[in-house]
Protein backbone atom coordinates (compact mmCIF):
# COMPACT_ATOMS: atom_id res chain seq x y z
CA UNK A 1 0.00 0.00 0.00
CA UNK A 2 1.41 3.41 -0.96
CA UNK A 3 2.33 6.07 1.57
CA UNK A 4 -0.54 8.31 0.45
CA UNK A 5 -3.04 5.74 1.71
CA UNK A 6 -4.41 6.83 5.07
CA UNK A 7 -6.62 5.46 7.81
CA UNK A 8 -9.39 7.97 8.48
CA UNK A 9 -10.54 8.09 12.11
CA UNK A 10 -12.91 9.89 14.46
CA UNK A 11 -14.34 12.70 12.32
CA UNK A 12 -14.95 10.29 9.44
CA UNK A 13 -15.62 6.57 9.31
CA UNK A 14 -12.82 4.31 10.50
CA UNK A 15 -12.12 3.07 7.01
CA UNK A 16 -9.00 2.35 5.00
CA UNK A 17 -9.17 5.08 2.38
CA UNK A 18 -7.08 6.24 -0.52
CA UNK A 19 -6.12 9.86 -0.84
CA UNK A 20 -8.13 11.20 -3.77
CA UNK A 21 -5.01 12.70 -5.30
CA UNK A 22 -2.37 10.55 -6.93
CA UNK A 23 -4.20 7.23 -6.80
CA UNK A 24 -2.71 4.78 -9.25
CA UNK A 25 -5.38 3.07 -11.41
CA UNK A 26 -4.12 -0.43 -10.58
CA UNK A 27 -4.40 0.03 -6.80
CA UNK A 28 -7.20 -1.43 -4.68
CA UNK A 29 -8.56 -1.23 -1.14
CA UNK A 30 -7.07 -4.46 0.19
CA UNK A 31 -5.24 -4.39 3.50
CA UNK A 32 -3.65 -6.81 5.91
CA UNK A 33 -3.78 -6.58 9.70
CA UNK A 34 -1.18 -8.58 11.61
CA UNK A 35 -0.26 -8.84 15.27
CA UNK A 36 0.67 -11.26 18.02
CA UNK A 37 -2.12 -13.09 19.88
CA UNK A 38 -3.96 -10.79 22.28
CA UNK A 39 -2.82 -7.58 20.60
CA UNK A 40 -6.34 -6.45 19.68
CA UNK A 41 -6.71 -7.49 16.04
CA UNK A 42 -10.29 -8.68 16.48
CA UNK A 43 -11.25 -5.58 18.47
CA UNK A 44 -9.87 -3.33 15.75
CA UNK A 45 -11.61 -5.33 13.03
CA UNK A 46 -14.92 -5.05 14.86
CA UNK A 47 -14.50 -1.27 15.05
CA UNK A 48 -13.76 -1.28 11.32
CA UNK A 49 -16.83 -3.43 10.74
CA UNK A 50 -19.03 -0.94 12.61
CA UNK A 51 -17.63 1.88 10.51
CA UNK A 52 -18.40 0.07 7.27
CA UNK A 53 -21.97 -0.56 8.42
CA UNK A 54 -22.24 3.06 9.55
CA UNK A 55 -21.71 4.36 6.02
CA UNK A 56 -24.18 1.93 4.45
CA UNK A 57 -21.76 -0.85 3.57
CA UNK A 58 -22.09 -4.61 3.93
CA UNK A 59 -19.85 -6.86 5.99
CA UNK A 60 -18.96 -10.49 5.37
CA UNK A 61 -16.73 -12.22 7.93
CA UNK A 62 -15.13 -15.64 7.80
CA UNK A 63 -14.53 -16.18 11.50
CA UNK A 64 -12.45 -18.83 13.24
CA UNK A 65 -12.87 -18.94 16.98
CA UNK A 66 -16.17 -17.04 17.28
CA UNK A 67 -14.56 -13.63 17.88
CA UNK A 68 -17.31 -11.85 15.94
CA UNK A 69 -20.31 -13.80 17.23
CA UNK A 70 -21.42 -11.41 19.97
CA UNK A 71 -21.08 -8.28 17.83
CA UNK A 72 -22.92 -9.88 14.93
CA UNK A 73 -25.85 -10.95 17.09
CA UNK A 74 -26.09 -7.57 18.83
CA UNK A 75 -26.27 -5.87 15.43
CA UNK A 76 -28.97 -8.25 14.22
CA UNK A 77 -26.78 -9.86 11.60
CA UNK A 78 -26.75 -13.43 10.34
CA UNK A 79 -24.36 -15.56 12.40
CA UNK A 80 -23.94 -18.96 10.80
CA UNK A 81 -22.19 -22.08 12.06
CA UNK A 82 -22.25 -24.85 9.50
CA UNK A 83 -22.36 -28.25 11.18
CA UNK A 84 -21.89 -31.26 8.92
CA UNK A 85 -23.99 -33.35 11.31
CA UNK A 86 -26.87 -30.86 11.43
CA UNK A 87 -26.92 -29.07 8.06
CA UNK A 88 -29.21 -26.14 7.30
CA UNK A 89 -30.13 -25.14 3.77
CA UNK A 90 -28.77 -22.05 2.05
CA UNK A 91 -30.29 -23.04 -1.29
CA UNK A 92 -29.48 -19.97 -3.42
CA UNK A 93 -32.49 -20.45 -5.68
CA UNK A 94 -34.77 -19.60 -2.76
CA UNK A 95 -33.33 -16.10 -2.59
CA UNK A 96 -33.92 -15.22 -6.24
CA UNK A 97 -37.00 -12.99 -6.76
CA UNK A 98 -39.59 -14.14 -9.29
CA UNK A 99 -41.69 -11.00 -9.73
CA UNK A 100 -41.35 -8.57 -12.63
CA UNK A 101 -40.19 -5.42 -10.85
CA UNK A 102 -37.13 -3.75 -12.35
CA UNK A 103 -35.07 -4.58 -9.25
CA UNK A 104 -36.12 -8.23 -9.32
CA UNK A 105 -35.39 -8.59 -13.02
CA UNK A 106 -31.91 -7.18 -12.46
CA UNK A 107 -31.28 -9.48 -9.48
CA UNK A 108 -32.48 -12.49 -11.47
CA UNK A 109 -30.29 -11.58 -14.42
CA UNK A 110 -27.26 -11.22 -12.14
CA UNK A 111 -27.95 -14.62 -10.59
CA UNK A 112 -28.26 -16.39 -13.93
CA UNK A 113 -25.03 -14.75 -15.10
CA UNK A 114 -22.97 -15.37 -11.98
CA UNK A 115 -24.19 -18.70 -10.61
CA UNK A 116 -22.60 -20.89 -13.32
CA UNK A 117 -19.20 -20.06 -11.81
CA UNK A 118 -20.41 -21.49 -8.50
CA UNK A 119 -21.69 -24.58 -10.26
CA UNK A 120 -18.22 -24.91 -11.79
CA UNK A 121 -16.66 -24.79 -8.33
CA UNK A 122 -19.06 -27.48 -7.15
CA UNK A 123 -18.33 -29.70 -10.14
CA UNK A 124 -14.57 -29.19 -10.38
CA UNK A 125 -13.19 -27.53 -7.23
CA UNK A 126 -9.55 -28.29 -8.01
CA UNK A 127 -9.10 -27.85 -11.74
CA UNK A 128 -12.19 -25.99 -12.92
CA UNK A 129 -14.45 -26.76 -15.86
CA UNK A 130 -13.47 -26.68 -19.52
CA UNK A 131 -14.53 -24.18 -22.18
CA UNK A 132 -16.92 -26.86 -23.43
CA UNK A 133 -18.45 -27.61 -20.05
CA UNK A 134 -19.03 -24.06 -18.83
CA UNK A 135 -21.66 -23.08 -21.44
CA UNK A 136 -23.49 -26.34 -20.69
CA UNK A 137 -23.74 -25.32 -17.03
CA UNK A 138 -25.22 -22.01 -18.17
CA UNK A 139 -27.79 -23.82 -20.33
CA UNK A 140 -28.67 -26.17 -17.49
CA UNK A 141 -29.20 -23.29 -15.08
CA UNK A 142 -31.44 -21.33 -17.44
CA UNK A 143 -33.51 -24.39 -18.33
CA UNK A 144 -34.02 -25.43 -14.72
CA UNK A 145 -34.86 -21.87 -13.65
CA UNK A 146 -37.47 -21.54 -16.39
CA UNK A 147 -39.09 -24.79 -15.26
CA UNK A 148 -38.88 -24.59 -11.46
CA UNK A 149 -37.95 -21.02 -10.54
CA UNK A 150 -37.16 -20.44 -6.85
CA UNK A 151 -38.08 -24.07 -6.04
CA UNK A 152 -35.10 -25.38 -7.99
CA UNK A 153 -32.20 -27.23 -6.39
CA UNK A 154 -28.72 -28.34 -7.42
CA UNK A 155 -30.22 -31.80 -7.86
CA UNK A 156 -32.35 -30.43 -10.71
CA UNK A 157 -29.25 -29.09 -12.44
CA UNK A 158 -27.47 -32.44 -12.10
CA UNK A 159 -30.53 -34.33 -13.37
CA UNK A 160 -30.87 -32.04 -16.40
CA UNK A 161 -27.23 -32.61 -17.29
CA UNK A 162 -27.41 -36.37 -16.73
CA UNK A 163 -30.33 -36.62 -19.15
CA UNK A 164 -28.46 -34.93 -21.99
CA UNK A 165 -27.00 -36.97 -24.84
CA UNK A 166 -23.59 -35.29 -24.71
CA UNK A 167 -21.08 -37.32 -22.74
CA UNK A 168 -19.47 -34.24 -21.21
CA UNK A 169 -22.90 -33.09 -19.95
CA UNK A 170 -23.50 -36.47 -18.29
CA UNK A 171 -20.05 -36.17 -16.77
CA UNK A 172 -20.93 -32.76 -15.32
CA UNK A 173 -24.10 -34.19 -13.81
CA UNK A 174 -22.03 -36.84 -12.06
CA UNK A 175 -19.46 -34.26 -10.93
CA UNK A 176 -22.22 -32.29 -9.18
CA UNK A 177 -23.33 -35.34 -7.19
CA UNK A 178 -21.77 -34.27 -3.84
CA UNK A 179 -24.08 -31.23 -3.84
CA UNK A 180 -27.28 -33.07 -4.81
CA UNK A 181 -29.87 -34.32 -2.31
CA UNK A 182 -28.12 -37.71 -2.09
CA UNK A 183 -24.60 -36.30 -1.87
CA UNK A 184 -22.39 -35.40 1.06
CA UNK A 185 -23.21 -31.67 0.94
CA UNK A 186 -26.67 -31.93 -0.58
CA UNK A 187 -28.69 -30.99 2.49
CA UNK A 188 -27.03 -27.57 2.51
CA UNK A 189 -28.52 -26.86 -0.93
CA UNK A 190 -31.86 -28.69 -0.89
CA UNK A 191 -35.34 -27.40 -0.11
CA UNK A 192 -36.19 -23.85 0.84
CA UNK A 193 -33.30 -21.85 2.31
CA UNK A 194 -33.35 -21.78 6.10
CA UNK A 195 -30.65 -19.13 6.31
CA UNK A 196 -30.09 -15.99 4.28
CA UNK A 197 -26.72 -14.65 3.19
CA UNK A 198 -28.25 -11.34 2.16
CA UNK A 199 -28.01 -9.53 5.51
CA UNK A 200 -25.94 -6.37 5.85
CA UNK A 201 -23.67 -8.33 8.17
CA UNK A 202 -22.97 -12.02 7.72
CA UNK A 203 -20.53 -13.90 9.94
CA UNK A 204 -19.67 -17.49 9.09
CA UNK A 205 -17.83 -19.54 11.70
CA UNK A 206 -15.46 -21.79 9.76
CA UNK A 207 -14.46 -24.14 12.58
CA UNK A 208 -16.52 -27.05 11.22
CA UNK A 209 -15.66 -26.29 7.60
CA UNK A 210 -11.89 -26.62 7.82
CA UNK A 211 -12.07 -30.28 6.85
CA UNK A 212 -14.32 -29.61 3.81
CA UNK A 213 -12.61 -26.80 1.87
CA UNK A 214 -14.67 -27.52 -1.25
CA UNK A 215 -17.85 -26.69 0.69
CA UNK A 216 -16.34 -23.56 2.23
CA UNK A 217 -15.31 -22.32 -1.23
CA UNK A 218 -18.87 -22.74 -2.52
CA UNK A 219 -20.39 -20.99 0.50
CA UNK A 220 -18.09 -17.99 0.07
CA UNK A 221 -18.84 -17.78 -3.65
CA UNK A 222 -22.54 -18.15 -2.98
CA UNK A 223 -22.41 -15.16 -0.66
CA UNK A 224 -20.55 -13.09 -3.25
CA UNK A 225 -23.19 -14.02 -5.81
CA UNK A 226 -25.98 -12.88 -3.47
CA UNK A 227 -24.42 -9.40 -3.40
From TrEMBL:
Residues annotated as domain TraG P-loop: 27-94
Top-level taxonomic group: Bacteria
SUPFAM superfamilies: P-loop containing nucleoside triphosphate hydrolases
InterPro entries assigned: F-pilin_assembly_TraC, P-loop_NTPase, P-loop_TraG
Pfam families listed in its UniProt record: P-loop_TraG (PF19044)
Matches recorded under PANTHER family: CONJUGATIVE TRANSFER: ASSEMBLY (PTHR38467:SF1), PTHR38467
Protein name (record): FtsK/SpoIIIE family protein
Organism: Orientia tsutsugamushi str. Gilliam
Amino acid sequence: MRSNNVLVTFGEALLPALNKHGVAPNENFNLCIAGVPGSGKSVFMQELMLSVLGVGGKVFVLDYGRSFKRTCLILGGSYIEFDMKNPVSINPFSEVPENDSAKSIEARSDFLSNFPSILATMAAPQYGTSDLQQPMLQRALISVWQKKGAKAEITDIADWLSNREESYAKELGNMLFPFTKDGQHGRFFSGKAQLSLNSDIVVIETDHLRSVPELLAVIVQNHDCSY
